[in-house]
Amino acid sequence: MKKKKWFLWIIILLILGIGGFFGFNYWQSKAEANSENQIQSVDLASVIEVALGNLKNTVSSSGFLQPVNSVNLNLQSSGTAGDTIEEILVSNGELVEEGQELVHLKDKEETLNYLKAKNEYELAKINGSPSLTQEEKRLAMDLALEKLEAQSIRAPFSGKIINIYVEEGDYIEKDDDIIYLIDEAAYEIEVSVSEVDCMEVKVGQEEEIELDVLDDKVFSGKVMEVAEYATANSNVVTVPVTIRMDEVSTLFKPGFSASAEIIISSTENVLLVPVTSLTTTERGSAVLKVKGDKGVITPVKTGISDSYYMEVTEGLQEGDKIIVNNYQMNTDDDAEDDKKFNLFGGGGASLGGGAPRPSQPQGGNKGGNKGGNQ
Prior knowledge:
By secondary structure, the protein is α+β, with helices and mostly antiparallel strands. Among the domains are: 59-66 and 183-266, Efflux pump adaptor protein, beta barrel domain (Elongation Factor Tu (Ef-tu), domain 3), CATH 2.40.30; 73-181, CATH 2.40.50.100. It has four helices and 20 strands. The protein has helices at residues 2-35, 108-126, 131-149, 335-338; strands at 38-39, 47-49, 51-73, 82-88, 95-96, 101-105, 152-154, 159-164, 171-173, 179-194, 206-211, 218-226, 231-233, 236-245, 257-274, 279-281, 284-291, 294-305, 309-314, 321-323. The strands form three sheets. It has a six-stranded antiparallel barrel with strand order 3-10-14-12-11-15. A four-stranded antiparallel sheet has the order 7-6-4-9, with no helix packed on it. Helix 2 packs antiparallel against helix 3. Residues 20-36 and 332-374 have low confidence and may be disordered.
């Protein structure tokens, strides 16, 4: 009877020993695997190679093309309250010189008044009238001449006639627009930048500008002014920013819609990875680097981003292979067990999801963005 008991105890001890041995080995191998940050199952079909490239961190904006110098001509500066258009001397699209007469108003009365004033002044000089009388007649003649000249609408600067609002025979009031004149030597765009992004926008920063009507043509420009005030529209606060075009095209027309990318920072010939390959831990950013048929969670330091790609400053080399989708760092079959181990030696770091996969290759940011983790 005692031999049977001893035999049972021996069997029990053997079972416990074998189970403990294999259990210890399992958890030890698990810990070793985690200490190397390895994930056993990765989709090798989504492997990409880290390569060098150029990157720009930009703020997106939009507005309308306008000449730097333009004017709607009317009678406000002439002193004429209103009159009738007698003759239009130019046409739409015509180039004119500064001082050139564009429109002539009826001026019979003004001409008559000027001639009378001039004759009186000449008679005063011939008759030897007192100097005070002569001066009075001269001033009256000058005023009559000013009113006569006000019947001619002249170009205040050299430019191009864009629109003529009147026809011959029309009676116009003082505030009525007559001609729209522009100077084609320089164009600008006024855009609105969000109150957050405006903190990064500075005078002198370069631009990449596209006009909706001119496909595949990118123009350059610079920030000329950042307004000292903000405006609110439907509870959205923005700051006006003026952009000056570096070049002028004969295809430009006032009012063309434009999209501008304000270049906040840029870098060339640096390592780039898709933002979808990055995840965040308590220690910073990480990617899933491929070694053989396994993925190794590898910490990296990052620089600027264009929302599609991120600059990597440390942790990777050109030619390294990584997994393009960071979700695989969260889908290991033993994810629950992995939580017991800190993949970077700390306490319970969690691996979060990443940004959506970009729908196009490396290019300008269309929504405004910030730099990566440093």
